[in-house]
Amino acid sequence: MNFTFTPDQVAMRKTIVDFARQELNPGAAERDRQSLFSRQLWDKCAAMHLLALPFPEQYGGDGFDFVTTVAVYHALGYACKDAGLLHALTAQLICGLQIVLFASDEQKAALLPDLAAGRLIYAQAMTEPGSGSDAFAMHTSAQKTESGYLLNGAKTMISNAPVADRVLLFAVSDSEKKAFGGISCFIVARDAAGFSAGKAMDKLGLRTLTNGELVFSDCQVPASALIGRAGQGAMLFTEAMEWERTLIPACLLGEQERILEESVRYARERRAFGQSIGEFQAVAHKLARMKMNAELGALALYSAAALKDQHKRAALETSTAKLFISESLKQAALDAVQLRGGYGYMTEYEAERELRDSIASTLYSGTSEMQLNLIARLTGV
Ligand SMILES: Cc1cc2nc3c(=O)[nH]c(=O)nc-3n(C[C@H](O)[C@H](O)[C@H](O)COP(=O)(O)OP(=O)(O)OC[C@H]3O[C@@H](n4cnc5c(N)ncnc54)[C@H](O)[C@@H]3O)c2cc1C
């Protein structure tokens, strides 16, 4: 077991921290107020290869292992104050990882270069108005036709949907079988006839990430739109969740570390009753818990990432990492507001935005309740 970053990883993390501070942070508060997704910043991230890291070099990627990708996104989460933009980037990477794992060589050659270069934006569409946690209870259908599939249905809350050029869509292709064997995954282009995207939904936090509805109305796609085999969609999605529940928590852990650092600084500087507030045990213990959770979160994160690098099943480890890190982040963000007193509540300071952003983390990619259900099942309950 090796728990240290390599010199290359240390150098990459430093480059990313400098990049995020200089290029991504200016104007983050204003973009949040305006719910603005910045294509210009997306392009800058793409130019920094942030969308290419884990993909094979032959398809325009950088060929880094997953631990390195996670280490870079961990650094990005620490330095970048635009959590919505980070979520948009990770949504793209998760789509790409599914293509790498399940698509044919022809599909990889056709799709990955534009994805890795950020030229086209991707979204992954599973959730429907009537099915979120119970994802496989979806109703969107994919009916086999002579030339391919006819898609009908609607998806909602999909990250990147309003700006996406391509969608990885999950639909029922065999209603007799339903989940495993009955759901398939398709790649749908924005200009496909019968496909439309709604406008961005207004949100509590992550306001620079766009989320929205996708509607498929007699949308005909060719047979070549199928990713993986027919009926393999649920398996594909289950596998994708393991990568997602590692990559997104990498950003969340970085955010948590930044909140800790800024809270420690505030606790040392702010004075009350003739001493710094950090000298009150009630404040110090909050910071001690934040530190403990960040340390334990890092162990959970990198052990899950190492398992995925070895292409092992890691449902338990990835769910544990996602649950622990997202709940710890939410608590840290809440504590950061509390220890700033009334200033924590004012939009002029960052603690308020960090709290709003953190709340989504225990909802997307499986709610905390669903992670606990999975962990219980995998523990033999
Ligand atoms: C910021 C953001 C980004 C998102 N991005 C995407 C995306 O890119 N693609 C996509 O497909 N979806 C996306 N989603 C949707 C997300 O995956 C769903 O919101 C989530 O899975 C929960 O589904 P739901 O909202 O329908 O809640 P429900 O499933 O209706 O759950 C409501 C409540 O009931 C609880 N509950 C449900 N079932 C159980 C159970 N068996 N045991 C215990 N409690 C239970 C839940 O935990 C929750 O508290 C996103 C959501 C957000 C907020």
Q: How would you characterize the overall build of this protein?
A:
The structure is a single chain. The protein has 381 residues and is of the alpha+beta class. The chain has three domains: 110 residues, Butyryl-Coa Dehydrogenase, subunit A, domain 1 (Orthogonal Bundle), CATH 1.10.540; 112 residues, Butyryl-CoA Dehydrogenase, subunit A, domain 2; 140 residues, Butyryl-CoA Dehydrogenase, subunit A, domain 3 (Up-down Bundle). The chain is built from twelve helices and ten strands. The strands form three sheets. Strands 1-4-5-8 form a four-stranded mixed sheet. It has a four-stranded antiparallel sheet with strand order 2-3-7-6, covered by helices on one side. Helix 10 runs antiparallel to helix 11. It starts with 6 loop residues before the first helix and ends with a helix. The model has no long low-confidence stretch (mean pLDDT 97). Bound molecules: flavin-adenine dinucleotide.
